[in-house]
Amino acid sequence: MSRRANVRNFSVYSALNKAPWSWPVPEEAKQLKNPLHPTAPALKSAREVYVDKCAHCHGDTGKGDGRDASRYDPAPMDFSDAKRMRQATDGELFYKISEGKKPMPVFKNKLTEDQRWELVLLIRSFAQPVSPATNNTVK
Length: 139
Prior knowledge:
Helix content: 40-55%
CATH topology: Cytochrome Bc1 Complex, Chain D, domain 2
Radius of gyration: 16 Å
CATH superfamily: Cytochrome c-like domain
Oligomer: single chain
CATH architecture: Orthogonal Bundle
Largest sheet: none
Shape: globular
């Protein structure tokens, strides 16, 4: 069965059963703390991985508006939604990146642990307000 057919079948199943799509995360995973700090090198490294592995669905700025986003149900998460991002722990984000759940791919065997923690730092940065000092443009 094709990926599209799987997504369609899941959507039909969810609609018929009025079951919301959920992604449970084990409590012990939610409690994990990010061992890395948001340094410039860590964010630069994460950006390279994000552009290659994540942006086509989650979008360049994490809004869930990547070129392939419309192909998926549920839609890719909007990492710029500050309220939603405050509700997710670092451990929860790390777990979801690592373990995946269709249509989200599994990355635990494709990315190192540090790369996955760096992605947590980067996607958190999408929900941060842009300060006026960093938003200046040369006229």
